[in-house]
Structure formats: structure tokens, C-alpha cells
Amino acid sequence: MHFYCEKCKKEYPLNALQYECDCGGLFRLYKDSSNEIPHLVSIGEIETPMLETSFESIGRVFLKMEHMQPTGSFKARGAYALINQLKYMGIDKIVEDSSGNAATAIAAYAAAAGIDCDVYIPEEISSNKLHYIKSFGAHIHVKKDRTAAGRAVREAAKNTYYASHIYNPLFFEGIKSLAYEIYKQLGNKIPEYIFVPAGNGTMLLGLYYGFEEIGALPAFIAVQSEKCNPIYAAFKRKKVIQEASIATAINIAEPRRLKEILMCIKRSFGNVLTVSDAEIYEAQMAIGKKGIYVEPTAACSLAGALKFFKKGKPDNYNVILPLTGTGMLS
Ligand SMILES: [Zn+2]
What positions does the domain Tryptophan synthase beta chain-like PALP occupy (predicted)? Predict the structure, then answer.
């Protein structure tokens, strides 16, 4: 396994301090069928249930219950792969920046792996999440906003391994397991649609590469907030809006892998839509009525599906709504 540049194809080892190519291109992962991520560290990650349920206007859907993963979000999948590979390579110190769920997952796996972890986070993080990350013994650096946290972590990454959930392809490698699980739970079928809350595109890219390996793609419908819509704006050639919405995990003004995200949506014959804070809140409450408490970002998948299938949905379509994170920490 090694990294290679998406633009100039230059190769880099997995333990390189560099997190992007000299030419400015982002890394992709080269992995052949004989390569496996080592299994050294576990914090109880699971195959999450896929709950068949229905909502009045759209009928039957499947809720993929990723909020049940350790640390309360699907990011545990990425952190599992990333930290296991780093542990295997003997890396004993990492830096990371995140708004919450990724930092939580990476800090937790790093703690279990005995890897020293510095986390750069924006002030906006909920006090619940902050306490959660602290409990893993991570060194916390609070910065004014995401941009400032990003700048600080890139400075620190000059001499410490950058375990980024955006730059490091090992993280996406872990998310791929979600695609395999959905496929298996549907009885070896590709679903027609997956509605994916999208900010940095972590879940979307992981799902895309997973289904690509399986051999067929569902249509990916990326769901963004009306208040922060860079993927929607690029896809539809509309005006970019960059405000704060209640879907904090996808309040990403400038997704670093935007081109790759657009490519995945186009190749899947998917689409992008936006939802309002009111629609997100209503969806969160509708999921709550099923006895499930998710964060506003996770409710974007249902809010998006309700909007997309306004005139109804064919009964035979398998539609997956990933519940990305728990409401307990938001
Ligand atoms: Zn390059």
C-alpha cells in the first residue's frame, strides 16, 4: 500500500510526514487485493443495524444506524482503519483537526492504541464533545474557528503525523466498510438511493469507493444545508452561501475534496439538494418519534429524502438513510 498524488501520480509511503503532494494534489490510496488494514486496536466497533421503517409521505426506507458506533458516529470506521495502520507502522504521535465527530473518534482510537494525540478544534464545538475528547487524554488546542484550527494543525503537521479525516486516504478506506455492510444487509443488492449529509464528503467518498469495489453504484443524493451549500452551488452553478446552520457537522464552507465529491455524485447519476434548518429540525423530530435520537446533521438524510420524493417514491426502491451521528453529544 502507498499514497499517490491524484494529479501527478507521484508516490509517497503511508508514513510520510507530507499530507499532500508537492504539486498541491491530494493523496489517494493504492491498495491491491493482498493488502489488508491490520487489526490491532478495537474499541468495540460494530456492524450497525439497518432498520426498516416508513415515513408517511415516502413509505418504506432503511435507517442505517451509524450513531450506534463507538464514539457515536460513522467516523469510528475511518478512525479504526487509520489508527490501526498507524499503530502497525509504529507512529506514536499524531495531530488532527475537526469540528467534533472525527476528532472524537480519532482521539478514542489513538488512546486505545497508546498514540499521543493533539487535537485542534474550533470554539464552536459543544461542551459535551469537548469533555468527551478530553477524557481520551488528547491534548486540546481550541482555536477561533475552523480556518484557524486548520492553519494551526498544518503548522504542527510539519513535524508530526497528520491523522486527518480529510487529507488522509486511510480514513476513507475505513468508511468503505459501510458500503459492504449495506450491500450485505440488503441481501447482496445495491440500493437505488442513498441520501448522504455532505460537508467534507467523508461518508460520500467512502461509500463511493466501497460500492465501486463491489461493482455498481447507488445514486448518491448529497444533502447540504441551505445555509452552507458549496457542493450544491458547484453542482448547480448557484451562488455560494456560507452561514452557520444547526447541522454543525456539515457546516463546511470550502470542502478540500470538492472536485472528487462532484465526480462521485456525477458518476453515480446522483444529485445534490439543500434543506432548511426548519426541515432538518422536523426530520430530527420525526426520527425521534421512532425512538431514535440523532444529531441535526444526521436528520439531513431524512429531510433530503422527504424533499426529493415530494411526489412519492416507487415502493420497490431501496432507499438508505444513514444516521451519521448521535444526538447525545450535539
Ligand atoms: Zn502531485
Answer: 42-325
Domain with 247 in it: 50-69+177-322
Buried b (16+ CB within 10 A) or exposed e, 235-265: beeeeebeeebbbbbbbbbebbbbebbbebb
Q: What is the pLDDT of residues 143-165, one digit of tens each?
A: 998 889 999 999 999 999 999 99
Tell me how far the alpha carbon of residue 76 lies from the centroid of ligand 1, in angstroms: 29
CATH number for the domain that contains residue 189 = 3.40.50.1100
Q: How far is the CA of 166 from the centre of ligand 1 (A)?
A: 17
The verdict on 54 and 29 lying in the same domain is no
Domain count along the chain? 2
- Residue 129 confidence (pLDDT): 85
Instruction: Enter the DSSP assignment of 163.
Output: -
Has residue 188 been placed in a domain? Answer: yes
Looking at residue 27, what is its pLDDT? Answer: 97
Say how many Å lie between the CA of residue 159 and the centre of ligand 1: 20
Cβ(203)–Cβ(175) below 8 Å: yes
Does the CA dihedral 82-87-89-91 come out positive or negative? positive
Q: What is the distance in A from the centroid of ligand 1 to the CA of 22? A: 6
Which residues lie near ion ligand 1 (Cβ < 5 Å)?
5, 7-8, 10, 21, 23, 25
Reported as type and span, the H/E element at residue 5 is strand 2-5
Q: How far apart are CA 52 and CA 79, in angstroms?
A: 27
CA 21 to centroid of ligand 1, rounded, Å: 5
Q: Are residues 5 and 61 in the same domain?
A: no
Q: Are 250 and 198 in contact (CB under 8 A)?
A: yes
